[in-house]
Amino acid sequence: MLVTDFRTADLPVAERFGSWHDMTAKALIPNVIRSDHEADFRARARVLQLGDLQVSALAYPALETRRSTQLIRRSDPDGYQMMLSLRGGHRILQAGRDSVCGAGDMMLYDTSRPWHGWTADDSDRVKGVMVAFPRALLPLPADELDRLTAVPLPGREGLGAVLSGYLVQLTAGAAAYTPADDSRLAACTLDLLTAYLAHYLDADASVPPSARHKAQLLQIRAFVQRHLDDPDLSPGAIAAAHHMSLRSLHRLFQQEGLTVAGWIRGRRLESCRRDLADPLLRSRSVRAIAARWGFSDPAHFSRAFRAAYGMSPGEYRHLVPTGLDSSMAGAKSPADAPA
After folding, report:
1. Residue of 182, 138, 169, 335 whose CA lies nearest to 256
2. Which secondary-structure segment (H or E) carries 305?
3. CA–CA separation, 142 vs 89, rounded Å?
4. What is the spatial distance between Cα 137 and Cα 133, in angstroms, rounded to a whole number?
5. How many helices (H) does the chain have, and how many strands (E)?
6. Which of 48, 252, 281, 300 is the most buried (most CB within 10 A)?
7. Do 177 and 185 form a contact (C-beta atoms < 8 A)?
8. How confident is the model at residue 322 (pLDDT cuts 50, 70, 90)?
9. Where are the beta strands (DSSP E) in 17-158?
10. Alpha carbon of 324 to those of 52, 266, 274: distances in Å?
11. Taking a C-beta distance cutoff of 8 angstroms, is the pair 231, 296 a contact?
12. Which of 115-124, 127-136, 244-253 has the lowest average pLDDT?
């Protein structure tokens, strides 16, 4: 995987804006940009190349950008960009639309059409994640996607929350990825993008089953993570919350080589293990930590912890200062085991 980190703060002040302009033209897409902060332009980017997909975490001052017909003729990747705004916002003129998206929103741009854009006036600092991908990779009708071009889309609920959380984690964890992860991460990213856009096109029939399944599974996993402290969390409760049958829920996890109950238990054990290793939580009892993550029976928790990690919770907490926790950091999580 090719990961590029770029910080204008590493450059002489006079070179910062010009270097950012050149970097974005080469690594992202050619634009003409201007900014009131050109005299000392402090910006940073982390660009992940996942095959034909590119995911970039960006932070920069307020600016204005134009992509003209001439630039498109010179360089037209025939693709899209999806921008997730994390701080500040964007205004764009494209395809006859004048749209503004704020923090938590997403917007789809067509790289084959001219645009004129600005960061929102109420913020001098913008942060976001940009996904760029060829049009041909998206298994959705191009004429239908035109309806979503330069239209603000929500990123704080439903599939939007799943996609937003995934993109933030994807860019933050880049240092831990290996070349073997490229194709898997590219497929997962494309699946989520497809499911998200199809939701707003009402075009689920055109979405490959694998994309729908992946998006649904990630949505359910996010739900489970939010409710780990509920001792009544069960496969039945999860199925009801997602308006699906219990059989469908079990089948979804079976396709990943997992069981629903096993995955819940594994996530709870990982959360307990993390708390037991936290020196700030030394005064909290093992029983309290177990209860915090949904284990209402201390004896059951102790047996499950020993089965997963080869020792009791108390023994683990005692041995953590010796460096045991760091040695276990790369171990396979019990949440990923087909319990």
Report:
1. 335
2. helix 298-309
3. 26
4. 7
5. 13, 12
6. 48
7. yes
8. low
9. 32-34, 44-50, 53-61, 64-67, 79-87, 90-94, 97-101, 105-110, 115-119, 125-134, 153-154
10. 40, 19, 12
11. yes
12. 115-124
> pLDDT tier at 279 (50, 70, 90 boundaries)?
confident
Q: Using the predicted structure, report yes or no on whether residue 237 has a pLDDT greater than 60.
A: yes
Q: Any residues with CB less than 8 A from the CB of 111 and at least 6 apart, and which?
A: 29, 67, 72, 76, 77, 78, 79, 80, 81, 132
CA dihedral 49, 32, 121, 169 (to 10 degrees): 0
Tokens of 82: 């999806």
Quote the Cα angle for 249-204-164, to 5°. 75
Q: Which domains does the chain have, with CATH numbers?
A: 2-171 (2.60.120.10)
Structure tokens at 4: 């590029």
Q: Token match 């040695």: residue?
A: 327
Instruction: State the Cα–Cα distance between residues 72 and 79, nearest whole angstrom.
Output: 11
pTM of the model: 0.68
- The answer to whether 316 and 276 are in contact (CB under 8 A) is yes
3-state SS, residue 45: strand
Element (H, E) at 270: helix 260-276
User: CA-to-CA distance for 221 and 60, rounded, in angstroms?
Assistant: 32
